[in-house]
Specification:
alpha/beta, three-stranded mixed sheet, extended
Length: 99
């Protein structure tokens, strides 16, 4: 979950990460990552970005996966299982021709 305050602007190429709260009238510049509470901005090339994203626990927030940040393989495998289950529910969907 994230909250974007009224009249806030997230520029093209910017990202507001999970569990981030942007105050009203806040501006996130292009190619910048906004994260944490209170919000802080990191450039895409910032050496501390990977560690900061790891602390946000995106996999937990987005997919319910509780794997350690340092265990990338397990985290990705668990996320893939979640996505397969989500997409699998549509295996029998019928495609309608609306045109």
């Amino acid at each position: 979950m994230r909250t974007v305050g009224a009249v806030s602007v997230v520029a093209v190429g910017a990202l507001v990460h999970a569990r981030t709260v942007l105050p009203d009238e806040y501006f996130v510049p292009p190619h910048t990552v906004a994260l944490d509470v209170p919000v802080r901005l990191l450039a895409s090339g910032d050496p501390g970005l990977a560690e900061a994203v790891g602390r946000v626990s995106f996999a937990q927030v987005a997919f319910g996966v509780d794997a350690e940040w340092t265990d990338r393989i397990s985290r990705y495998e668990q996320i893939a299982e979640v996505r397969v289950a989500e997409f699998g529910t549509h295996a029998d969907d019928e495609v309608l021709n609306l045109g």
